[in-house]
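Case study.
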Amino acid sequence: MEQAFNSEFYAKLRSLRMSIALSNAAGMSGGRKSKAKGNSVEFSDFREYMLGDDIRRIDWNAYGRFDKLFIKLFMEEKEGLFHVVLDASKSMDFGEKNKAVAAKRLAGAISYIVLENGDRLFLDIMKDGMIENHRGMTGMQAFRKSIEILDRTEFSGAGDFLGSLKRGNFKQHGMSFFISDGYCDNIEEVFKYLRFCHQEVVFLHVLSPEEKDPAYEGTIQMVDCETGSDIRLSMSGSVLRSYKKTFDDFIHNIEGICKKHSVIYIPILSDASVDSLLYGSLSRLATNN
Amino acid sequence: MKFLYLWPLALLALVPVIIFMYLLKQKAEKKEVPSLFLWRETYHNIEANTPWEKLKKNWLMILQIILFLIIILALMGPFLLNLGKSTGHVILVIDNSASMNENYEGEKTRLDKAIGEACDYVKGLKNGTGMSVISSSDVATLVVSSSDDKNEVINKIKAIEPTLNAGSAEAGVEMVKTMQSQWPTLLTVCFTDSNVSMKDVPGSIVDVYKQKENVGIEYLSHGESGGNLVILAKVTNYGEKETAKEVTLYGDDQILTSQKVSLPAGESQIVYFDKVNFTGSILRAELNGNDALADDDVCYDVVSENRDIRVLLMTEKNAYIEKVLDLMEGITVIKSNDIASFDSFVTQGFDLYIFDCMMPAPEYFPQTGNVVIFDAPNKDLYQSKGEIDSALVEAESVNITQYVETMDFGAVDITAYYTPDWAAPFLTAEVTDTETDKKERMTVGFYGDYQGQKITVFGFDLHNSELPLKMEFPLLMYNIVNDNVMTGMLQQNVVYTGDGIQVNARADGALPTVTKPDGTPVQLSDYRIVFTGTDQTGVYTVSQTESHLVKDGAEFFVANFPATESFIEMTPDMNTDAETDVKKGASGDLDLKNIIIAVALALLVVEWIAYLRK
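After joint prediction, the assembly is written out as follows.
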């Protein structure tokens, strides 16, 4: 398998500056504006004094003009909480241009952007219905750690996304980058669950070119790499046409589900270059900003 | 559409083998895919498609099966009958000669096959087509004359019986030639196992010949040696394989002996049975085991005492007597006018002596054998009563004048005799005494048995009478010769089935009866007749209830299967006559075999191209 985090990746990453939009930051005090009113220097609003308010915040100028006591309200700045949820099932380890490599690069790049923006990063690795939670990381010093985690991640086992996510830590409002090939029957349930957990969801749908345009011929015994089950198909033009139609329906269906649940859908082919991954695919996040 | 053969249907059992082999051939390549999520849906989509779509992926196999079915179809020899095509008039000639009794396949004989083919052919003709049917063996028989009723024709065809007669479809074709001018458009279809020339007869031959294993006895014969019989049987292997047979010899249905014989393909052997002590009448040789033709496995012979009858005619010249003796079968006539040398003849011993106007010296008068005398004296035997210049001679009613009792004729220079006491007159003449004017009937011809010899005397020279000119003369002579020498009704004892046999019964008895081997009695319509009803192999009995003068008698003859029918020298497929169309089945105008083979080849090409493209 190609090395995910090579020198080219790091070289491109250094030039990546991007702010990811997050409507409600819910983390600890940070650099991201919060809907909560707090103690930062950024003025937000006035309100009448109420018993118990800090008298140091009374705006005496306003008292002079209106003869009423007003309290100055200031925007509280908090850090954003970002989850990178990586599907590490065996199905991701496929393709000449491996999906796993592309997925790792995407996760790495997102980690970089999140940490560089001063937000908190959670890496969640899903496989076999379990989830590997890593404590929230902040600061650029944590980037190295995140890369290490991603680098040693092995893609094996089956994918049970909903089962895995239910074991995850999505208690606070944040944003989840769901990186997967999406091969499950209940992808809509997955998004619903994440939305229920106050997550803004970005689905990075990673597929290989072989999956998009398979070039099989003859009679093929197809073995599912996760479950080991198989089917036997004699490839012909009509069979491949039927698959192509099924594939397109699959994509359209996911697009529809994403739209329905306000999930940002970003399809990615694993043969995309690092440039294309970082500036092409992820730029949609910035555009949304 | 009809088929010549049904056995290729058995090959249908191989169709599952093709499917099985095709499945074996399909070695699937194992591929690991990230998920069957999409493929499974694709699979279901294909499943949900029409059965045709489902079959599409295996269409090469289906093509192969179709190809195989087409080959089976071609092997079945399909053909289209004359559907929708009127030929004006159709004559079907069906060979029912003895060879058609040979087995064709299964229990069917060649005749069964020919009848089946003919019925199929009739069914395939356009309604309204005129049809005639001729059965042909030694003679042709018009079975149906110009009918357009298919059912009637089919029933008549099915009713055609096999015969054991030697023959072929040739007689039928000859009959067609005499009939064909009746119809402007005529088609003749000959169903036969032997070649027949169809020159000048528009039509075709349907060949029902099939080579099978057959061994037959061509003939059975015997001779005498030292009081015993020496018997020989010629056995021939008509088949293509060497075979061993046992020839069993029966005498009057009792086993006498048997011999084993080994016969290479196509060869004959003579089997000898030496010193067979048998005093009966009927010999029968029989082959063991079964073969394609059972009728030629048995052959009969008759041990009879019949021998050639020798007649000595002493005459200067008498064409009348010579001619009438020529007409009689089974007798050898030796003629001489040298009465002086009669002593040398008499020692040879003849059955009958005829002295025409001459008489040997008394010491040489034959002591054995019977005698007929024309106008010659013999004082030892009879006395002359006088000479008559001319008279009307009349026949008396005795056994040798049966059917000629009313005959009379004129004669001159007649000698009248005193009738000897051992004789009876059979010719008399009324003479008027010129002196007394008294009429007297005088004997001018008599016959009788003198010391064991039958002696018949005519009192006039035939040249001096009208007798030879009378139509009754041959009959009278036959009666006389028969009375003197011929004791049997049959001149031969062995015939082939279908052949006629002369029966010469005594005119003084009842009409003879022939009893066939199966016991059927056939009363003949005359005393002298050719019996043609030899339609069975075996022993025939000819019997006659005779008059008070002679005792009842029965004789045998046997009918054997004609050896020429055991082996077809020229089969229809040997026909090199370009004008003769020989077919193996009763196909009409269109033999589909070639068309089907062409379709099969085209499919093969399609399959080959598809295979290469794949």
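Observations recorded in class. The beta strands of chain A are 29-48, 70-78, 81-87, 120-127, 130-133, 174-180, 199-207, 218-224, 230-235, 264-269. DSSP finds ten helices and ten strands in chain A. We will return to this complex in the next lecture.
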